[in-house]
Design brief:
The chain is an alpha+beta fold. The chain has two domains: 244 residues, Nucleotidyltransferase, domain 5, CATH 3.30.420.40; 206 residues, Nucleotidyltransferase, domain 5 (2-Layer Sandwich), CATH 3.30.420. Helices cover 38% and strands 22% of the residues. A hairpin with a 3-residue loop joins strand 15 and strand 16. The chain is globular. The termini are far apart.
Length: 496
């Protein structure tokens, strides 16, 4: 039997998966390290990781995977890579990292990006970059230039985390359009590298790696890569993408109107469009999706993040007198739609970009101490998080998204019927639930070098579909509850 290897390089762990080449069926997934990877934070708001730690954990995961499933290196026919987005890796001529990677959740370059947005002009950024430079990779590189000139002067190439991992396998330096766009290095209007932003930041264009297709032979494992990873020399790297575009791919989301949603600690709505509209570019990010190609109809992934999502429900689990999520869901199911008027605003996980970076915290309103109990809290929390997703979808719709189907992983919030039914009913769309992960998606994507997207989608449908939540016909009680919640939210926003 032959397999593809999928790697998912997160900031807390590395996951590695094997799938059968023919059927796309998952053999299994392993995680390294067993405990969470650490982050270095020399100052408040900073977050760094060593790129060579990622590589060490990847090599350990591959060893574990081969041993656990009794697979030899010659049975692995290709590699797909998914990685934490927006990170910055800088290397010297010998290919050694010059400093730790500044990762996605590091906020040191916020001011750098905001200043550039105002100096270049909001319209120019929105039309060409489809985003503000914000705290993305280009701004992080500018921060290094301004604050660590000795390091900056030694840089041979900058990379995204997935580019560095591919380099460690193959000793070949390259990147993708999708990757450059997530770093805000891509000019969508010119369909080329964003020279005007590089010039504004004083960054030499020679630091940009060569560009390869997202699907296809990007490079091959060399002898050093084989010695360290245990993957045979000559094995092709067929695919790489950031974790959110890869999550959408894992859920068979490629075409305009298709939406991928995740409901973990924070929530994400990622919708594919062929529109270059970026009127909400300060609240919604726009990146080249995995199937974006120069000169073709654009495939843009619009990404909206809801910070205050599952973290709210976890906080209740830890602080209410309850023993499990199951108990909370049971308590919530005994309360009617609208939680008898109790409203929970779930934005207690820092600034919310979709609320124009306001930090409004969590609020519980209309609580009657005689009539309401923890069941109302549980229901109001699930509804409040669902309503925040619907609110986000309204922003997406105003920016040209016309959702035709929503697909989500079988995890966290989407396991709650109250949550999923509330979202499905209010946006009047089916929500299809799939049992898949980023590592499995990346492994399957290795097969897309052959261009057969239909077979790829079929493998997901055949192997992973769990259930579909249908919108309820009686939308009225949900709409009343949502409007009540939205009124409370707008009162808070207008006070700020």
């Amino acid at each position: 039997m032959n397999y593809y290897l999928g790697l998912d390089i997160g900031s807390s762990s590395i996951k590695a998966a094997l799938v059968e080449v023919e059927s796309g069926k998952s053999l299994g997934v392993v995680q390294e390290p067993k405990e969470e990877m650490g982050m270095y934070a020399a100052k408040n708001g900073w977050a760094e990781q060593s790129p060579n730690d990622w590589w060490k954990h990847i090599c350990n995961a591959i060893t574990q995977l081969k041993k656990k499933y009794n697979v030899s290196k010659t049975q692995i026919k290709g590699i797909g890579i998914s990685y934490q987005m927006h990170g910055l890796v800088v290397i010297d001529k010998e290919g050694n990292p010059l400093r730790k990677s500044i990762i996605w959740c590091d906020s040191r370059a916020v001011e750098t990006g905001n200043t550039a947005f105002n100096e270049i002009g909001n319209d120019i950024c929105a039309t060409n970059l489809l985003n503000s430079p914000a705290n993305f990779t280009a701004s992080k590189l500018k921060w290094v230039k301004d604050n660590e000139p000795d390091i900056y002067n030694k840089i041979y190439k900058f990379m995204l985390p997935g580019d560095y991992v591919a380099y460690k396998f193959s000793n070949t330096i390259n990147t993708t359009i999708s990757g450059l766009s997530e770093g805000i290095f891509w000019n969508f209007k010119e369909d080329n590298v964003a020279d005007f932003l590089l010039e504004h930041y004083g960054i030499d264009k020679a630091l940009v790696p060569d560009i390869v297709e997202t699907f296809g032979v990007q490079s091959t494992v060399d002898e050093k890569g084989e010695a360290e990873s245990g993957i045979a020399a000559g094995t092709p790297i067929f695919y790489r993408a950031g974790d959110q575009p890869n999550n959408a791919l894992s859920l068979n989301v490629f075409n305009p109107g298709e939406v991928a949603a995740t409901g973990g600690t924070s929530g994400v709505v990622y919708a594919v469009t062929d529109s270059l509209s970026a009127k909400e570019s300060s609240r919604v990010n726009n990146f080249a999706h995995v199937n974006y190609q120069k000169g073709a109809d654009p495939r843009i992934g619009k990404l909206l993040c809801v910070n205050g999502a599952g973290i709210q429900y976890r906080w209740l689990l830890n602080n209410l007198a309850v023993s499990s999520y199951e108990e909370m869901n049971t308590l919530a199911s005994e309360i009617p739609v609208g939680s008898d008027g109790v409203c929970l605003i779930p934005f207690g996980n820092g600034a919310e970009r979709m609320l124009n970076n306001k930090e409004i915290g969590t609020r519980i309103v209309n609580m009657n101490l005689n009539n309401h109990h923890k069941g109302h809290m549980c229901r109001a929390a699930l509804e409040g998080i669902a309503f925040s997703f619907v609110y986000g979808m309204e922003i997406m719709t105003s920016d040209g998204i016309k959702p035709s189907v929503i697909r989500a992983g079988n995890d966290n919030l989407f396991r709650s019927e109250i949550f999923a039914n509330t979202v499905a009913t209010l946006i009047e769309q089916e929500i299809e639930i799939y049992n898949t992960t980023g590592a499995i998606g990346a492994a399957r994507a290795a097969n897309l070098h052959n261009g057969d997207f239909e077979a790829f989608g079929k493998a997901i449908m055949d192997n992973d579909h769990v259930m579909t939540f249908m919108p309820f016909k009686d939308k009225k009680p949900y709409l009343e509850a949502y409007n009540n919640w939205k009124n409370e939210l707008e009162l808070i926003i207008n006070k700020k």
